[in-house]
Write a sequence for this structure.
RNA sequence: GGCCCCUUGGUCGAGAGGUUAAGACACCGCCCUUUCAAGGCGGUAGCGCGGGUUCGAUUCCCGCAGGGGUCACCA
């Protein structure tokens, strides 16, 4: 493969700005980007906004933001410009024109004046006959006179591509191999809509050809569109790019990923506190695998290793559990200061921190964050994880059976009382003194192990789980720890 | 329904005629541990079915089944 790529690789990601960037789109973009970077080629970002109804600038902005967040950049395209612009199809209308004329003149395309009703009627008829609906070419041989009559009657025509009969169409796909289609299965399809805008199948070909795209890497849902595009490449005498159709990403029930499978947009994952490096790593492994047994890869490594040969043909289920594992891995690698920054917005939003009280608390907060870093899977868990440190009042966690049991031990009230009493008097308070304090209590009351440490843990946090007890106590400070313990003591007596 | 793609454990997946069928997530167990995790070690679990081809098929071919995609004036 390496040897076959003689000309400079040029790939593109061409989203339709009709919503946020989805997981599947992100992976397509990533594969294109990895391929381009691997081969020292160019990545192009084109916006396919020929659907006036559904396209929006807001969606475009979200998509660009998502790509940037993932660390995917582009050499040509929207926002950065380039020699082959403009990069929004709405701004390229004049470019399509001559090609449409060419097809019209050579008789490879024709105007169709059928109304939606007529088309619907034809469709129904075919269905009743047990045939599949497809355009039968009613307007293929309209005379100029007839066309004028329809035109003056207010009909706005579309332009259809005249599909030649009995033609084998072969897609030589880099991931699927040779795939064959028959032109007889394809009805004359629309290339220019009645609003004058090109359809996807037409614009994509003209743009890919004019932009010098060498490899079209996209989702498998486009495979069955490819024969139509092949027809246009041929009609316009454009050189063919190489195609690579990557399998879809499925939800847990093995159907195509959709909103009911939970979060599907990249921005939602960002919001939940997933790290871009984890997302990229995860997406890369969904449908592609490197040689060897590693699972953790930096973008640079992915670029070095990536190849289309190792792209899987079968669809992949989106496994949130694995994403969580990867994300937890990357969170563990973060410097506590950085993680703290990331946690801040969530803590503020949860009301666990007051913005004004932040300044002198930062280094303390950083230690608290460090104490829970290893159990965090995604950053939006920060409020839950850090509540033990930040809560005003401690409630006994309902449903925490272990905590309940500890509180019922007959030794517990004594332990808590002793702790409250002694902690209040401490002048020094660090890991070592806290350790000694607990030891003393244990010795004096003849209590040890769980009955001692768990009792204190539950007393100061209301929970049977949480960060390392010593760290928890040290960060809480003697006053707060004693106050909480006192509070719990009153609750249970 | 036509056409097209896909089929290795719960999931991602390695494998490309002869293997004890990698590895990872999840799960279970043990170790570590002043909790829960993390970490270390170990374990359970898989080639959809039926025909071929072959000395031998997870691997090649054909059917079937199942899943998915596509058949728009959406991309």
């Amino acid at each position: 493969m390496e040897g076959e790529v003689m000309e400079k690789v040029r790939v593109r990601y061409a989203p339709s700005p009709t919503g946020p960037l989805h997981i599947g789109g992100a992976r397509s973009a990533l594969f294109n980007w990895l391929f381009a970077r691997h081969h020292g080629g160019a990545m192009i970002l084109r916006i396919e906004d020929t659907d006036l109804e559904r396209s929006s600038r807001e969606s475009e902005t979200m998509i660009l933001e998502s790509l940037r967040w993932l660390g995917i950049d582009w050499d040509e395209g929207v926002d950065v410009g380039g020699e082959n612009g403009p990069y929004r199809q709405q701004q390229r209308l004049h470019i399509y024109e001559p090609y449409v004329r060419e097809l019209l003149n050579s008789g490879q395309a024709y105007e169709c004046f059928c109304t939606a009703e007529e088309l619907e009627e034809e469709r129904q008829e075919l269905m009743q006959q047990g045939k599949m609906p497809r355009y039968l070419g009613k307007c293929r041989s309209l005379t100029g006179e007839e066309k004028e009559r329809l035109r003056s009657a207010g009909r706005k025509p579309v332009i259809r591509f005249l599909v030649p009969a009995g033609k084998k169409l072969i897609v030589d796909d880099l991931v699927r191999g040779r795939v064959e289609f028959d032109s007889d299965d394809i009805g004359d399809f629309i290339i220019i809509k009645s609003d004058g805008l090109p359809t996807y199948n037409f614009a994509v070909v003209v743009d890919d050809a004019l932009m010098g795209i060498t490899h079209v890497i996209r989702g498998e849902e486009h495979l069955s569109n490819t024969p139509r595009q092949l027809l246009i490449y041929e009609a316009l005498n454009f050189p063919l790019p190489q195609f690579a159709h990557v399998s879809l990403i499925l939800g847990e029930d093995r159907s195509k990923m959709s909103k009911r499978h939970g979060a599907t947009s990249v921005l939602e994952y960002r919001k939940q506190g997933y790290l871009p490096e984890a997302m990229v790593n995860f997406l890369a492994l969904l449908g592609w695998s490197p040689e060897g047994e590693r699972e953790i890869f930096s973008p640079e490594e992915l670029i070095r290793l990536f190849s289309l040969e190792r792209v899987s043909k079968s669809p992949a289920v989106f496994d949130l559990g694995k994403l969580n594992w990867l994300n937890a891995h990357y969170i563990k690698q973060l410097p506590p200061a950085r993680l703290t920054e990331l946690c801040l917005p969530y803590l503020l939003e949860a009301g666990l921190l007051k913005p004004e009280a932040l300044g002198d608390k930062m280094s303390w907060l950083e230690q608290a964050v460090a104490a829970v870093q290893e159990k965090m899977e995604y950053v939006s868990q920060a409020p839950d994880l850090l509540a033990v440190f930040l809560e005003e009042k401690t409630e006994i966690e309902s449903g925490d059976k272990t905590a309940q049991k500890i509180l019922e031990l007959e030794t517990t009230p004594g332990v808590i009382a002793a702790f409250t009493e002694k902690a209040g008097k401490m002048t020094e308070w660090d890991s070592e003194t806290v350790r000694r304090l607990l030891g003393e209590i244990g010795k004096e009351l003849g209590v040890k192990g769980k009955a001692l440490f768990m009792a204190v843990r539950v007393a100061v946090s209301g929970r049977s789980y949480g960060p390392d007890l010593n760290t928890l106590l040290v960060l809480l400070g003697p006053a707060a720890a004693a106050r909480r313990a006192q509070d719990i003591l009153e609750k249970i007596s």
